[in-house]
C-alpha cells in the first residue's frame, strides 16, 4: 500500500494520496486500506516517515564513512544516487511533511518524524568535529542542500538525473570543505 502511495504522490503530489486512490491502485477495497491505516493522515505519515527513514539510512552511513575526507562527498553523492535509484520516493521528498498534512498526524507519528530528523544534527556535528571544522551549516549545505537542489531541478523537469550528477555533487562538497579549511 505504501508503494502505491509513493507512485501516487510521485505522479500527482501529496493530494493524490487518498485512501480511495491507494485502494484503487492496489486493486482492493478501501476497507483494506482502513484496516492498515486509520485514515489519510495515518497513511500520509507512514508514507513520509518510511521514505525519510529509507533515505537517511544510507546518508547517515555515508556521513560516518572513513576516511573522514570521503564522508561529506559520499553523503552528497548518496543524495543523488538514492534519488536516481528511488525516483518515486525522491519525488515524495520534494515536498515537506506539512504537504502531507503533518498537523493532522497522530502524536506518535509526529514523534517518529522528530526522532528521524533529530538524527541529522548529531551526525553533522560529529562529522564537523572529525574534520576539524566549526561550520556545521556548511556541511549541511554540502551534504544535503546542494545535492538536493540538483535532484530537485532534474526531477521537477522530469528529465531524469544525469549520470554524472553524483560525481559532480561529490566534487562540489569536497571543494566546499577544502575552501573552508583554507580560509
Describe this protein's structure.
By secondary structure, the protein is an all-alpha fold. Helices cover 74% and strands 0% of the residues. It has helices at 2-12, 19-26, 30-36, 40-63, 71-85, 87-92, 107-118, 120-131, 136-157, 165-182. Helix 5 (71-85) packs antiparallel against helix 10.
- Gross geometry: elongated
Seen as an oligomer or otherwise, the chain set is: single chain
Class derived from helix and strand content: mainly alpha
| Total of domains | 1
Low-pLDDT ranges? none
Number of helices: 10
Helix content: over 70%
Helix and strand succession?
A: HHHHHHHHHH
GO molecular function: DNA binding
InterPro entries: Homeodomain-like_sf, HTH_TetR
DNA-binding region: 18-37
Pfam family, one: TetR_N
Q: How is this fold's topology laid out?
A:
Elements: H1 2-12, H2 19-26, H3 30-36, H4 40-63, H5 71-85, H6 87-92, H7 107-118, H8 120-131, H9 136-157, H10 165-182
GO molecular function: DNA binding
Organism: Dactylosporangium sucinum
Pfam family, one: TetR_N
